[in-house]
Design a protein that fits this description.
The protein contains 4 helices and 6 strands; from the N terminus they run ββαβαβαββα. The chain has one domain: Uracil-DNA glycosylase-like domain (Uracil-DNA Glycosylase, subunit E). Helix 1 links the parallel strand 2 and strand 3. With 163 residues, it is of the alpha/beta class. The C terminus is likely disordered. The longest helix has 15 residues. Strands 1-3-2-4-6-5 form a 6-stranded mixed β-sheet, sandwiched between helices. The protein is 32% helix and 17% strand.
Length: 163
């Protein structure tokens, strides 16, 4: 599945299992923090993501690897949703020649890993629970996690939310 959002993102969100309810939760959170033009419908008409791109890692994660290769010069922060998103992100980084420390850390909510590719610009990977799991991550916590990612990536509020 191709990603969607800004073509020059500083913030990349890796969603291993896109589902409409989770996408609306993500859109709502991104709207509240000011980087999405609408609170619903990530792929819908009129939706714009500012400084942010969402990439699917379904299956073999080849979409993620290709898209990360295209946006790598701009990405400062990658949000990996759930254990599958974390694993797919580490595989995509390795495919791009960015090697995490050995042994590679496993997923835990709140995990943070900063690595420095050959170009010398650090990339921070943040692990958060997948928004499809409402019991593990309520909306205020999702907003807080994405606000942290937004700040680390240097993405300012461009519309909606606080913007």
């Amino acid at each position: 599945m191709p990603g969607y959002g800004d073509t020059l993102p500083k913030l990349l969100i890796v969603d291993p299992a896109p589902d409409p309810a989770a996408e609306d939760r993500i859109a709502g959170s991104l709207h509240r923090i000011g980087v999405a033009s609408r609170p619903t419908g990530l792929r819908g008409p009129g939706q714009h993501l500012f400084g942010t791109r969402i990439v699917s890692a379904v299956g073999d994660a080849s979409w993620l690897e290709r898209e990360y290769a295209e946006v790598r010069p701009w990405v400062r922060v990658i949000v990996a949703l759930g254990p599958a998103g974390w694993d797919a992100t580490l595989r995509a980084l390795a495919a791009a020649g960015v090697v995490p420390p050995e042994p590679a850390p496993g997923f835990t909510p709140g995990a943070r890993l900063t690595i420095t590719p050959a170009d010398g610009r650090p990339v921070t990977v943040l692990g958060i629970d997948h928004p499809a799991d409402r019991g593990a991550l309520e909306d205020p916590a999702l907003d807080a996690e994405l606000t942290t990612a937004q700040a680390l990536a240097g993405v300012s509020a461009a519309c909606g939310g606080r913007g």
